[in-house]
Amino acid sequence: xxxxxxxxxxxxxxxxxxxxxxxxxxxxxxxxxxxxxxxxxxxxxxxxxxxxxxxxxxxxxxxxxxxxxxxxxxxxxxxxxxxxxxxxxxxxxxxxxxxxxxxxxxxxxxxxxxxxxxxxxxxxxxxxxxxxxxxxxxxxxxxxxxxxxxxxxxxxxxxxxxxxxxxxxxxxxxxxxxxxxxxxxxxxxxxxxxxxxxxxxxxxxxxxxxxxxxxxxxxxxxxxxxxxxxxxxxxxxxxxxxxxxxxxxxxxxxxxxxxxxxxxxxxxxxxxxxxxxxxxxxxxxxxxxxxxxxxxxxxxxxxxxxxxxxxxxxxxxxxxxxxxxxxxxxxxxxxxxxxxxxxxxxxxxxxxxxxxxxxxxxxxxxxxxxxxxxxxxxxxxxxxxxxxxxxxxxxxxxxxxxxxx
Length: 405
Ligand code: T4K
Hints:
By secondary structure, the protein is α/β, with parallel strands linked by helices. 35% of the residues lie in helices and 15% in strands.
C-alpha cells in the first residue's frame, strides 16, 4: 500500500458484495462506499518534508516571484523531461495563455473540441478563435485529416492535446504545421512523465504546457509550466509571467501575473520525490481494472502502450452500443455507490458556452467527438484507490452491463 494514502482510503471498506442488479444502490441497497471515491483525489507526498520546506520559506521570507523553490522545481522538471527550459506558472490555464501569446498566435487556432475547456478558453480569452477539429475515435486525439480540412487563411497555429497522457499524432501535426507555415504547440496537461515514440513529452512542437492542478497525479496545489527547447521563447515567457519586468522598475514587455508561489513549488518538490511510487500505484490500479474488465461485453478500456512511459493517471472506459446499459445509466449507478465517476470531456467544448452560441453548427464537423464524448467514463484511481476498491467498482459496472439472463 502506498504510504501517503488519501484520507478516505481507510474508510472505503467494502460494505457489500455486488452479484446482481438487486445489490445496487440505485435499486435501494446501501452504497458500496461510505465515503466518496473521487476521480482526482490528490496524491500528497511527505508531510514532514513539506512542513520543513514551509519553515524554510517563512525563515527566508521569500514567498513568490522566481524564488529558490520555484527555480529548484523548474530545474528538476526540466531534468526529468530532458528539456532545456521549464517556466513554472500559477496554473496550467495561465501557462497556456502565456504560451499562446508568446508564440504570437492570432486569428484562428485549430484545437480538438474533445478536451478540457481550458484549451479553448485560453484562446478565446485572448480574442483568438478556437476552430474545433474532429478526433480519431480510436485515440481520442486530433485527426490530422480533420485538422487539414479546418485550415483557412486566418489559421495561425495548432494546439494538439496529449489526452489522457498518451502521445498525440505529433509527427503528422508537425508535417501539417510545416507545410502551411503554422505554429504548433501542445497541451500536455495530462502528460507529465509520459513518452511518445520513446521521447519524453515536453520536447515536441514549439512548446508544451503542463498542469499541476490538485487533481493531477502530480500537483503543486494549483500550478503549471511551459516547457520548451527554445531559448528565446523561454525568455519571453519568463518576462510575460511577471508583468514584463526585467529588473526593478524596468518593464520591457507586455505581461500578466503568472507566477508560481514558493509554497506551491515546495509541494511540487515533495511530490516529485514520490512520483515513481504514485505512477506505480496508478499502474497497479490500471492493471487491476484491465483484468477485472476483460471480456466484458460493450466495455472497452483505453489501453496504454507499455513500451512507452505512462503516468496511468486516467482510467478511461468506453461504453459501446452493444452494451445493454447506457453510459449515463452506468454513471448514475456508480455515483449512487459513492463512486464519483466522471464523463470527461462531455459534451465537448463546442457544446459549451460561449462556443455553442458562437459556432452553433460546429458539431456538423465533429461526429467522432460526439461519439466519444457520449460514451466515455473516467474511473477513480490514484493512491486513494486499492485493488479491492477496483474490484467493487467493476462489480457495479458488471451488474449494469451484464445482468443475468
Ligand atoms: N488542459 C487540459 C487538457 C486539462 O485537463 C486541464 C485541466 C487544463 C488544460 C488546465 O489546467 P489547470 O489550469 O487546471 O492547471 C478538473 C481540474 O480542475 C482540471 O485541472 C483538470 N484539467 C480537469 C481534467 O479536471 P473538474 O471541474 O473536474 O475539477 P474539480 O475541482 O471538480 O475536481 C474533480 C474531483 O476531484 C472532485 O470531484 C473532487 C476531487 N478533488 C478536487 C480537488 C480540487 C479533491 O478530492 N481534492 C481537491 O483538492 O476539473
